[in-house]
Input
Amino acid sequence: MRKPSLIVLYLPQFHSIPENDRWWGKGYTEWTAVKGAKPLFEGHKQPVVPLGKRYYDLMDKETMQWQAELARKYGVGGFAFYHYWFKDGRRVLEKPAENLLRWKDIDMPFCFNWANGTWARTWSAISSASPWADQYETDEQEDASGILLEQKYGDKAAWEQHIAYLLPFFQDKRYIRVDGRPVFVIYHPETVYCISDMIAYWNTYLQNYGEKGIYWIAGVHDVAVPYSGIKTDFDAFYMTSPAPDWRHLDSVMQNGVRCYDAREYWRAFFARHAPATIGKKPLYASIVNGYDDTPRRGRAGHILPKLSLEDFQSVLRKAVRMAAKEEQPFLFYNAWNEWGEGMFLEPDEAQGYAYLEAVRDVMEEEIPEEKGAAPSVLDPRLSSISRDAVRYAEEANILARWMELREAGRNVGDYLATQGIRTVAIYGYGELGIRLKQELKDSPVEVAYIIDRSTAARDVDCPTYQLRENLPPVDRIIVTVHGLYPEIRADIKRFMTYPVRSLAHILFEM
Output
């Protein structure tokens, strides 16, 4: 029985960059928060100290060579570098991966995990924003909204810029692949409203360079809530831990810090989703041993204590064997070096190499031949309820964004006109379709016709068709049905070649 490869998440924030200097203070790196941590209650083990006080800089080749040798010695199969790519191709923390690409002699298998959230101040109202360090915020403001780096996905020109940047990494012989396809993980796929179009474009782009296309893995933040529309586009999923699981557990407050029981966490973990599938596609487990983000968050943080060595080895062994039975190629580990959140495998002063040795021992064990039980599948009753809940929540999010744009005096028609679009067809004439047609009235953009499967969906002053060949040409077909975009897009492409975009994509790009 073949073991999965242990892929550890890798944080590249261990070198100075101008952005961190401005936002969190001169010279800020992950080590700043780690060194400045203080125990907040009796028994709270802070600060954590790397073995030999090795507060490394990832700009040093020696450091990455050391990490690669350490990982190989102790059974780690590869690193998933967090990849930060923002609106208009803005990049940060990209240098360690770029250096690795140049340092061909470092034997470090790797792939990318696109951490695709907007970066913002903690007081920002931006949903799904990623603040780095609450306790280190400076007074310098670049945007009154609190946005530091905004995430937008653009259109074909933006997608081409991004994939062209990634191509040399994908072609590197150390890049991790499945069935010959480079692995690419998206941490928050549910926010990428152009995901179907972007995936199709990237895969086609790579095929022009002799590649088979990408092996796409989607981050899942709650196994009970399958993302609407994502299941069609991705090849597999991985569970981003630990927060999705501790939401279901009781906690204890210690001096204002929310603390969880590690054994209860793991009982819940295995009961809920290891191993599992979403649809018929694999959900890869993600192991975490300890979490403590108080170095970054202070009393607003959360703590999940580390397991004892014996319990950790038992948990890892069970996860490895379950993944092996399902013939899953990967088991994720969170993380290699998230020192500011207490998630690290690198040796520290307290435990030395003990947890790495535990990993090595498990990964070297023979797995007894057992007939694997069928992977757990989400309860269909729960999944049905969740799908409805997700769809309604997503539609509410779209409407909220629309209202926000209107309050700012921004109009969909004007935006489309700046893209050179003059005629559109609206696919789906429900609530969102009706609202879109009303907004485009008296704008530079003409609604040429409506496409709807229901014969009851009619508009008195606009032709309405069911989807078929030979519909009149338009500059763009706008799909207003949310949650089924991948399937609808594929259906449209069977009949016509007119450009297709989702309404959500348009609204969140404005």
